C-alpha cells in the first residue's frame, strides 16, 4: 500500500492557492450530483486553510449550508472511541488484549466465544461479530437504535459470531458499541463523558458532540438529511434520531473544520495538541488487516488506511440515514481533509480524495519548472474559469504556478489533465496530456485588451462559453448556439 516515490511537499501558500480551485470543484460536483448541500475543510499541520460550504442545509426552508452547519458523521465515532481506548491502555487502565469478559462480565452468558474476544479484535474489526445483528432496520428508522438491553439480546444469538476471530477483516458496529461499554467500565464514567473530557473539550471542538440527545444545543444546527435519487425522482427528508447504545459506533455529529482539527491531533510530530503518544498513535494507524476486495485499503486499530495517489492516509467515513461523510489525514505531512454531505448517496469519498489529488497536482511541477509570471500569468488568469460547450464542461485553472485544463465532471479531476503554455495574449497551446487530448493544438481566447476571455476555442476547435453564459436554447438546432457574429453584446 505504499509507493516508492514520496508524495510532493505541501506548503500553506500552495494549499491556500490550490484550495480556491478545490472549493470551486466541490461546488460543481455538488450541483452535478444534485446534492442538497455539502461542507468541506482542509488543514495543514493543524492550520485550517480552507473552509467551504455549498448548497442547502434544509431545502424546504431554503437554509444554506455554512461552516457552522453540523452533520451526522456516523462511523467517524469509531475513531473517537478508539482514541479513548488507546489513551486508557497507555495509562494502564486496560490492555488491548483484555477480553470482553473481564470488563463486561455479563458476556459470559452470551453466545459461546463472545466473552473471549479481545479489545484488539474489536478495534480492528477482526472479532467475527455480526455487523448489526439480524435486525438492522434501525439504519432506515423502522425501529430505534439499540439500547443496552437490545445489544445484549443480539449477543445472546449464537449467530452473533459469524466467523472465528482473526480470520478476516469483518466490519462490526456491534463490536464498537461494546467498546463504548468497556470505556465506561474502565474509566468510571459514561462513554459520552469520557470522549468529551478526553478528546472534544481538550481540542476545543465546540461544534462536535458524541450523539444528539433531546435538547442538545447543536440540534438546531444539524443539516437535514435526504434520501437517494437511486429509487426516486426527488429526495425526501430524513428525521434525526439518537443512537442509544450504538453511539460509540455511530453517534457523533460535527463540522468539517472541527474534524480536520481533530485529525490534525493524530498527526506525527509534536506541533500542536496531540491525543496519543507516538506508540499508541502508530498502533492505531498501523495496517493490521487489508480490506478484501478494496484495493489500497486496510484498517488499523480504530482508523481506516487508504492510499490516495502517492499518499498513505488514515481516517474514516461515515454513513448515516441522510448523511455521507469522509475524512482523511496524511499523518506524515499533516494534511487533513474532511467532506460532509447531507444525502444518503452523497459522494463524500470522491470529494475528499479528489481534493487530495488536486493539491498534489498543484505541488507536482517537474523540477526546474518556472511558475507563470508577468504577462504570461496575466493571460493565464484571463483564461481561467469554467467553460461549457454542448458536450460538457472543462476548467482552466492555475495550480501550483502551472496552467492546466481539467474535466470537473470526473470523480478524479486529475485523471485527464492537459497542461497549457501561454504563447501570447490571446493564444495558448496544449503541451501535454493523455492520448486523446489535443496535444500540440492551440487554444484561442476571445478577449479585449487586458480583460478576461469571453469565449475560447479548445479541443475540437469548438467555441466554449463561461458556464454562466452558456447560450442553451429550449431546443438545440442548427445555428441555435449563437451564430457567429450574433452573440449578445455584439461579440
CATH superfamily of the largest domain: DD-peptidase/beta-lactamase superfamily
| Arrangement of strands in the largest sheet | 3-2-1-13-12-11-10-9-8
The largest sheet, given as strand count, sense and whether it forms a barrel, is: 9 strands, antiparallel
Number of strands: 21
Secondary structure category: alpha+beta
Descriptive terms for the model:
nine-stranded antiparallel β-sheet, 2 domains, Beta-lactamase, 491 residues, alpha+beta, single chain, eight-stranded antiparallel beta barrel, 12 helices
Write the layout of secondary structure elements.
Layout: H1 12-32, E1 37-44, E2 47-58, E3 63-64, E4 71-74, H2 76-90, H3 100-103, H4 119-123, H5 148-156, H6 173-187, H7 191-200, E5 225-226, E6 237-238, H8 247-250, E7 252-254, H9 256-264, H10 278-285, E8 289-290, E9 297-299, E10 304-308, E11 311-320, E12 323-330, E13 335-341, H11 348-362, H12 374-383, E14 385-389, E15 392-399, E16 402-406, E17 418-424, E18 427-432, E19 442-446, E20 455-458, E21 462-466
Antiparallel strand pairs: 1-2, 1-13, 2-3, 4-7, 5-6, 8-9, 9-10, 10-11, 11-12, 12-13, 14-15, 14-21, 15-16, 16-17, 17-18, 18-19, 19-20, 20-21
Helix pairs in contact: 1-11, 2-6, 2-7
Amino acid at each position: 500500500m505504499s509507493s516508492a516515490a514520496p508524495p510532493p511537499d505541501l506548503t500553506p501558500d500552495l494549499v491556500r492557492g490550490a484550495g480556491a480551485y478545490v472549493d470551486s470543484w466541490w461546488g460543481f460536483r455538488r450541483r452535478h450530483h444534485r446534492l442538497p448541500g455539502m461542507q468541506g475543510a482542509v488543514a495543514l499541520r493543524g492550520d485550517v486553510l480552507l473552509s467551504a460550504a455549498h448548497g442547502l442545509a434544509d431545502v424546504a426552508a431554503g437554509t444554506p449550508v455554512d461552516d457552522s452547519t453540523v452533520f451526522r458523521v456516523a462511523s467517524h465515532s469509531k475513531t473517537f472511541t478508539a482514541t479513548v481506548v488507546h489513551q486508557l491502555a497507555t495509562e494502564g487502565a486496560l490492555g488491548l488484549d483484555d477480553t470482553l469478559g473481564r470488563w463486561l462480565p455479563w458476556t459470559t452468558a452470551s453466545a459461546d466465544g463472545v466473552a473471549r474476544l479481545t479489545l484488539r479484535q474489536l478495534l480492528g474489526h477482526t472479532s467475527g461479530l455480526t455487523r448489526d445483528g439480524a435486525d438492522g432496520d434501525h439504519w432506515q428508522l423502522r425501529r430505534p437504535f439499540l439500547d443496552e438491553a437490545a445489544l445484549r439480546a443480539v449477543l445472546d444469538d449464537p449467530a452473533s459470531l459469524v466467523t472465528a476471530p482473526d480470520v478476516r477483516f469483518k466490519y462490526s458496529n456491534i463490536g464498537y458499541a461494546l467498546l463504548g461499554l468497556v470505556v465506561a467500565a474502565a474509566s468510571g464514567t459514561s462513554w459520552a463523558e469520557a470522549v468529551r473530557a478526553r478528546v472534544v473539550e481538550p481540542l476545543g471542538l465546540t461544534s462536535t458532540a458524541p450523539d444528539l440527545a433531546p435538547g442538545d444545543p447543536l440540534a438546531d444546527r444539524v443539516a437535514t438529511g435526504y434520501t437517494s435519487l437511486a429509487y426516486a425522482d426527488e429526495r425526501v427528508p430524513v428525521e434525526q434520531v439518537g443512537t442509544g447504545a450504538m453511539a460509540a459506533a455511530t453517534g457523533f455529529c460535527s463540522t468539517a473544520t472541527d474534524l480536520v482539527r481533530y485529525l490534525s491531533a493524530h498527526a506525527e510530530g509534536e506541533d500542536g495538541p496531540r491525543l496519543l503518544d507516538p506508540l499508541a498513535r502508530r498502533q492505531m494507524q498501523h495496517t493490521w488487516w487489508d480490506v478484501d476486495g478494496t484495493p489500497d485499503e486496510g484498517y488499523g486499530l480504530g482508523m481506516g488506511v487508504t492510499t490516495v495517489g502517492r499518499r498513505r492516509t488514515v481516517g474514516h467515513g461515515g454513513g448515516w440515514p441522510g448523511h455521507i461523510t469522509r475524512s482523511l489525514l496524511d499523518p506524515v505531512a499533516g494534511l487533513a481533509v474532511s467532506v460532509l454531505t447531507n444525502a444518503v448517496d452523497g459522494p463524500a469519498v470522491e470529494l475528499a480524495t479528489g481534493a487530495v489529488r488536486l493539491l498534489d497536482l498543484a505541488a507536482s511541477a517537474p523540477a526546474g519548472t518556472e511558475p507563470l509570471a508577468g504577462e504570461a500569468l496575466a493571460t493565464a488568469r484571463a483564461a481561467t474559469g469554467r467553460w461549457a460547450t454542448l458536450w460538457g464542461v472543462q476548467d482552466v485553472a492555475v495550480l501550483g504556478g502551472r496552467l492546466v485544463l481539467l474535466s470537473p465532471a470526473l470523480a478524479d479531476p486529475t485523471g485527464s489533465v492537459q497542461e497549457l503554455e501561454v504563447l501570447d495574449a490571446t493564444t495558448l497551446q496544449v503541451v501535454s496530456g493523455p492520448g486523446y487530448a489535443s496535444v500540440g493544438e492551440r487554444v484561442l481566447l476571445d478577449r479585449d485588451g487586458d480583460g478576461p476571455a469571453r469565449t475560447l476555442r479548445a479541443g475540437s476547435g469548438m467555441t466554449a462559453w463561461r458556464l454562466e453564459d452558456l447560450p442553451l436554447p429550449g431546443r438545440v438546432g442548427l445555428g441555435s448556439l449563437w451564430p457567429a457574429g450574433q452573440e449578445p453584446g455584439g461579440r
